[in-house]
Amino acid sequence: QVQLVESGGGSVTTGGSLRLSCVVSSTTSQHYSMAWFRQRAGEEREGVAISSSTGRTVDAASVKGRFTSSRDRYTNTLILQMNDLKPEDTAMYYCAAATYCWGFSEFGCDWISWGPGTQVTVSS
Q1: Are 20 and 28 in contact (CB under 8 A)?
Q2: Which residues contact 42 (CB under 8 A, 6 or more apart)?
Q3: Residue 54: partners with Cβ closer than 8 Å, 6 or more residues away
Q4: What gap in Å lies between CA 4 and CA 113, rounded to an integer?
Q5: Burial of 106 (0-12, 13-18, 19+ CB in 10 A)
Q6: Is the model's pLDDT at 113 over the cut of 80?
Q7: pLDDT in tens, 37-77
Q8: Average pLDDT, stretch 91-97?
Q9: Is the Cβ–Cβ distance between 118 and 6 less than 8 Å?
Q10: What is the helix (H) or strand (E) element at residue 118, kind and residue range?
């Protein structure tokens, strides 16, 4: 069973930066696709950045150029570096793990495990 725990959320002003981390408990995490999702209050969850087991990454258009996702395979950690934050980035951020993807760029995967989330708040 894969367990995920996010950290690094907080409150910043417009233009600020935050670095989110997601620690993966499984020793076989290198075989999983991993992703960051976010959910704004009253809205559906949306994909932010996805990373395959082979190192391929895709960022959502809304964050491209501002957010960067990376994986540290030695520490089983997924990172989301968020720069130039905007109020519309305010959301609960989650990491997730999948064993199979049929639509990688669209975050179409069998998301088998989710972290509890970390809150990001950006004020103007």
Answers
A1: no
A2: none
A3: none
A4: 7
A5: exposed
A6: yes
A7: 999 999 999 999 999 988 889 999 999 999 999 988 888 89
A8: 97
A9: yes
A10: strand 118-123
